């Protein structure tokens, strides 16, 4: 699996960096001025408190320490993350504007008929940060104990089972559509404007099931108000080791949101390299790791090339799901 390959490669990179101090050496720009010589802006296309915002904010203070200049978050939400992404894509490619993005930007490439940016052409990947799988949950009254049970029930009642999501084209929506494709189900989408409302209606039994971030649903699972059937990652999560993966039933199934750093295309390669090294190093700091894991995240890191390859594969994967499902932006 792509994520597992990145994890192995990350371990090799970490070993090579272990002997280096956290402080990153300065890099000269084309003008001969040391980089960074001033504040670096990191655009996050979602509001404060969103998953990507939390993850990027855990790393940026460590970059400030490493480079001796402030790395400041600039939240630019709107249009499913496309407002901020477009601003970052058209910024000057000098290393002073970075993009903290994730899965929504990859999905948008096919979800929206017209975009003001191209994720693959307008950005240079710097480093992956982490991936967060989704948990498949159902109301406990539903007579199913596994993903295959759910699929069998849905096939026996075509068009009767419903699933909640956080909106058309969201990762939870398209993950359910991916399951629909793998399992041959006919199910009905019920979009919501946020996770809390969606979870509330699944708990109340008004909707049959949903995919959600583990932090959003595990308290309800532990209290018996929801039943967890499976997790969307390629391998089992340390947070829920007894919960099977969907890939165990449907080989090749892998989904979830993810977070990464990128820069406008054409940013000097030496700047990309230094930023990557500092991010990889930051992701090994115990408090950063612990806080990411507390969010249900699996740390990725890796090289810029691996980050770019991963992002390209995500654009391709979600493009197929978007087209097959007929999903449209809200």
Q: Could you please describe the fold and organization of this structure?
A:
- The protein is of the alpha/beta class and 330 residues long.
- It has 2 domains: 2-132 and 256-325, D-Maltodextrin-Binding Protein, domain 2 (3-Layer(aba) Sandwich), CATH 3.40.190.150; 134-248, Periplasmic binding protein-like II (D-Maltodextrin-Binding Protein, domain 2, 3-Layer(aba) Sandwich).
- The protein is built from 11 helices and 13 strands.
- Strands 4-3-5-12-6-13 form a 6-stranded mixed sheet, with helices on both faces. The chain has a 5-stranded mixed sheet with strand order 9-8-10-7-11.
- Strand 8, helix 6 (171-183) and strand 9 (188-191) form a beta-alpha-beta unit.
Which outline best applies? Answer: globular
Number of strands: 13
The largest β sheet comes out as: 6 strands, mixed
How many structural domains can be distinguished in the coordinates?
Answer: 2
Put simply, the count of helices is 11
Sequence-ordered SSE layout with sheet pairings:
Elements: H1 2-17, E1 27-28, E2 34-35, E3 40-44, H2 51-67, E4 71-75, H3 82-89, E5 97-102, H4 103-111, E6 123-132, E7 134-138, H5 147-156, E8 162-165, H6 171-183, E9 188-191, H7 195-203, E10 209-213, H8 214-222, E11 227-231, E12 257-264, H9 269-282, H10 286-294, E13 298-299, H11 304-325
Parallel strand pairs: 3-4, 3-5, 8-9, 8-10
Antiparallel strand pairs: 1-2, 5-12, 6-12, 6-13, 7-10, 7-11
Helix pairs in contact: 2-9, 4-11, 6-11
């Amino acid at each position: 699996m792509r994520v597992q390959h990145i994890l192995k490669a990350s371990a090799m990179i970490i070993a090579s960096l272990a002997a280096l101090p956290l402080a990153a050496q300065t890099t000269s720009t084309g003008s001969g001025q040391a980089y960074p010589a001033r504040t670096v802006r990191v655009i996050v296309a979602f509001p404060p408190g969103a998953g990507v915002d939390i993850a990027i904010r855990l790393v940026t203070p460590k970059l400030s320490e490493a480079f001796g200049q402030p790395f400041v978050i600039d939240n630019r939400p709107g249009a499913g993350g496309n407002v901020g992404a477009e601003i970052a894509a058209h910024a000057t490619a000098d290393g002073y504007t970075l993009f903290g993005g994730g899965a929504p930007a990859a999905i948008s490439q096919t979800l929206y008929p017209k975009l003001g940016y191209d994720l693959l052409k307008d950005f240079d990947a710097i480093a992956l940060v982490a991936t967060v799988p989704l948990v498949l949950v159902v109301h406990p009254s539903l007579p199913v104990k596994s993903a295959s049970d759910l699929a069998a029930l849905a096939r026996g009642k075509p068009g009767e089972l419903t699933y909640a999501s956080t909106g058309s084209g969201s990762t939870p929506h398209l993950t359910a559509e991916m399951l629909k494709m793998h399992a041959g189900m006919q199910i009905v989408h019920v979009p919501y404007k946020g996770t809390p409302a969606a979870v509330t209606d699944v708990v109340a039994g008004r909707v049959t099931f949903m995919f959600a971030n583990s932090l959003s649903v595990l308290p309800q699972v532990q209290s018996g108000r929801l039943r967890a059937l499976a997790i969307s990652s390629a391998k089992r999560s340390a947070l829920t080791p007894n919960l099977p993966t969907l890939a165990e039933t449907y080989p090749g199934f892998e989904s979830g949101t993810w977070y990464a750093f990128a820069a406008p295309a054409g940013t000097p390669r030496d700047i990309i390299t230094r930023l990557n090294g500092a991010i990889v190093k930051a992701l090994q700091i115990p408090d950063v790791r612990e806080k990411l894991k507390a969010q249900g995240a699996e740390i990725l890191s890796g090289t810029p090339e691996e980050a770019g390859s991963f992002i390209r594969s995500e654009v391709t994967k979600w493009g197929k799901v978007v087209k097959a499902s007929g999903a449209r932006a809200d």
